[in-house]
TrEMBL record:
<keyword id="KW-0812">Transmembrane</keyword>
<keyword id="KW-1133">Transmembrane helix</keyword>
<protein>
    <recommendedName>
        <fullName>Serine acetyltransferase</fullName>
        <ecNumber>2.3.1.30</ecNumber>
    </recommendedName>
</protein>
<dbReference type="InterPro" id="IPR011004">
    <property type="entry name" value="Trimer_LpxA-like_sf"/>
</dbReference>
<dbReference type="InterPro" id="IPR045304">
    <property type="entry name" value="LbH_SAT"/>
</dbReference>
<keyword id="KW-0472">Membrane</keyword>
<keyword id="KW-0808">Transferase</keyword>
<keyword id="KW-0012">Acyltransferase</keyword>
<feature type="transmembrane region" description="Helical">
    <location>
        <begin position="21"/>
        <end position="40"/>
    </location>
</feature>
<keyword id="KW-0677">Repeat</keyword>
<dbReference type="InterPro" id="IPR018357">
    <property type="entry name" value="Hexapep_transf_CS"/>
</dbReference>
<dbReference type="Pfam" id="PF00132">
    <property type="entry name" value="Hexapep"/>
</dbReference>
<comment type="similarity">
    <text>Belongs to the transferase hexapeptide repeat family.</text>
</comment>
<dbReference type="InterPro" id="IPR001451">
    <property type="entry name" value="Hexapep"/>
</dbReference>
<dbReference type="InterPro" id="IPR005881">
    <property type="entry name" value="Ser_O-AcTrfase"/>
</dbReference>
Length: 189
């Protein structure tokens, strides 16, 4: 099985944990997050492929058009250059913006209104890198060259501009660590 399909099925399985009584097909048809992830998984696979440049370029143009259609209809922007681990879960659709160079680990959750963007100056200019099992609450903003450790939680409406340790729970603007309880209670097993 192709890598993109295996990863997409892992995404779908994450959704099924939250909605166990809904079939895979119903989830794929009805869930905007899965529409965006299908487009991303196929486009990213093409981007990472070893196809001849002219063929790859033409197909990527079609993928960008598809991405824009998905983005306009769902409010979810996932560029094909982004790196996203399997089991990604988008809790609610709308106003999700990911920079093309962002890296997101396995089994992460992201809520509506989240932005992962570029910021900073000099050596601090860059984009976020998220570890595994990270939970991002609604309207969280992560900007600049920073790393979020495994099992971290970024609370709703928080602004993150510096590194986040493993299992840290960050709250506020600017965000501060309020505990080290981690993300286990936020992620569906």
């Amino acid at each position: 099985m192709r890598v993109w399909m295996r990863e997409y099925l892992e995404d779908v399985d994450r959704y099924r944990r939250y909605c166990p009584n809904i079939s895979r097909l119903a989830l794929i048809v009805l869930n905007q997050g899965l529409w965006a992830l299908l487009q991303y998984r196929i486009a990213h696979s093409l981007y990472a492929s070893r196809l001849p440049p002219t063929i790859k370029g033409a197909l990527l143009v079609l993928c960008v058009i598809w991405q824009k259609v998905v983005e306009i209809s769902t409010g979810i922007e996932i560029p094909y250059r982004a790196t996203i681990g399997p089991g990604f879960y988008i809790g609610h659709f709308g106003n999700i913006i990911l920079h093309p160079d962002v890296i997101i680990g396995k089994m992460c959750n992201i809520s509506q209104g989240v932005t992962l963007g570029i910021s900073g100056r000099g050596e601090r200019r860059g984009v976020p890198v998220l570890g595994d099992r990270v939970y991002l609450g609604a309207n969280a903003i992560l900007a600049g060259k920073l790393e979020v450790g495994d099992d971290a939680v970024i609370a709703a409406n928080s602004l993150i501009t510096r590194d986040v340790p493993q299992k840290a729970v960050m709250v506020g603007n600017p965000a501060q660590i309020v505990s080290y309880k981690g993300s286990a209670d936020y992620l569906s097993a």
